[in-house]
Amino acid sequence: MVATIILRALQLIFSGVVLGLSVYLAHNYGYGHAVAQLRYGAFCGALGLLVSFVGIAAAFLDVLQGMVMSVVDALAALLLLAGGIPPDFPTRVVLPSVDEGLAIPEAPGVTMPHGAS
């Protein structure tokens, strides 16, 4: 129980930092600087605060332990993980087509042996 409270207190501190930084950046950056991402960061910070408060309460209340806390933690894990994925993460890999081939460009001043192309 002591470890749970300590870890939830750390979650509370880090979530407060995320919330504070996100709100500060969203306030000072203005329009056109990924405001939606900063707002989602603020949402993640507030969600982390809420989950940490519920987790601390669950250490003392038997009603919140078990399935309720598992669902809350799973939902928080998914939403917080989504906040950590960069928005410009490549969603597909572009490979050269068969027609283009996989030719290696020659370096200047380097000659290829006879028969190699």
Walkthrough of the structure:
By secondary structure, the chain is an all-alpha fold. The protein has one domain. It has three helices and no strands. The protein has helices at 2-29, 35-60, 67-84. Helix 1 packs antiparallel against helix 2. The longest helix has 28 residues, at 2-29. The chain is extended and about 70 Å long. The N and C termini lie far apart (68 Å). The model has no long low-confidence stretch (mean pLDDT 81).
Indicate the structural class.
mainly alpha
What low-confidence regions span 5 or more consecutive residues with pLDDT below 50? none
Shape descriptor: extended
* Total number of helices: 3
How big is the Rg?
Answer: 25 Å
Keywords: Membrane, Transmembrane, Transmembrane helix
Transmembrane segments: 6-26, 38-61, 67-85
Pfam family, one: MARVEL
Membrane topology: Multi-pass membrane protein
In short:
With 117 residues, the chain is mainly alpha-helical.
Write the layout of secondary structure elements.
Elements: H1 2-29, H2 35-60, H3 67-84
Helix pairs in contact: 1-2, 2-3
Main location: membrane
Organism: Coleophoma cylindrospora
Membrane topology: Multi-pass membrane protein
Offer a few descriptive terms:
transmembrane; 3 helices; 117 residues; transmembrane helix; extended; MARVEL domain-containing protein; Marvel; mainly alpha
